[in-house]
Amino acid sequence: MTAIAWDETPEVTDRRHRAPLSRLVLAEVRWIFRRPRTLVVLALLAIFPPIIGISIVLAGPGEASGEAPLFVAAATSALSIPLGSFMMLMSLFLPLAVAMAGADAIAGEQSVGALRGWLVA
């Protein structure tokens, strides 16, 4: 048997190689957006503003005598329909969607057992 003599000893490092933060965040975002539940909620959030706009236009000024009320006149402008539906979306449905995504993430961590480790540490 022959032995190979090393001229230099290999360096021993105590540094651990960690994944970059961007790769970890991207993996979590992929995990969230791959779920069908998330895609359904996003589709509902995307459908909501056109429904509000169409309902305001179809409602019209009504049969009031004289000029249309200020709200209806402002609601039929091209800028206020998207703005109003976006404000309604942000105040009513966006918190619901975020709460659903957060609850789903916590439930997923609990089912794997990682949440217990986080709470103990």
Written overview of the protein:
It is a single chain. The chain is mainly alpha-helical. The chain has a domain at 36-60 and 68-120. It has five helices and no strands. Helix 2 runs antiparallel to helix 4 (80-112). The longest helix has 33 residues, at 80-112. It starts with 20 loop residues before the first helix and ends with a helix.
Please render the helix and strand layout as text.
Elements: H1 21-33, H2 36-59, H3 70-75, H4 80-112, H5 114-120
Helix pairs in contact: 2-4
Helix and strand sequence: HHHHH
Largest sheet composition: none
Sum up the overall morphology in one term: elongated
Distance between the termini: 51 Å
- The percentage helix is 55-70%
Question: Beta-sheet strand percentage?
Answer: under 5%
Report the total helices. Answer: 5
Number of distinct beta strands: 0
Radius of gyration: 28 Å
* Low-pLDDT residue spans: none
In terms of structural class, how would the helical and strand content be classed?
A: mainly alpha
Mean pLDDT: 75
Keywords: Membrane, Transmembrane, Transmembrane helix
Protein name: ABC transporter permease
Transmembrane segments: 39-58, 70-94
Organism: Thermocrispum agreste
In brief:
The protein is an all-alpha fold.
Annotation keywords:
5 helices; transmembrane helix; elongated; mainly alpha; single chain; 69% helix; 0% strand; ABC transporter permease; 121 residues
